[in-house]
Amino acid sequence: MIIPKGLICPICQGELTKIDNSLKCSLNHSYDFAKSGYVNLLNPGKKNNAKTGESREMIQARTAFFSSGHYEKIRAFLIDLIEPYKKDVIIDAGCGDCYYSEGVAEKYPESSVIGFDVSKHGTERGAKSAKAKGITNTFYAVSNIFNMPLIPESADIVINMFAPVSYEEFGRVLKKGGYLIIGASGAKHLYEMKGVLYDRVYLNELNVHKNEAFEVIGVKNLSYVTKICGSDTIMKLFTMTPYYHHTSDADKKKLEALEELTTTVEVDFTILRKI
Ligand SMILES: C[S@@+](CC[C@H](N)C(=O)[O-])C[C@H]1O[C@@H](n2cnc3c(N)ncnc32)[C@H](O)[C@@H]1O
Ligand SMILES: [Zn+2]
Question: Quick one: which of 45, 62, 107, 199 has the most CB atoms within 10 Å?
Answer without folding.
Answer: 62
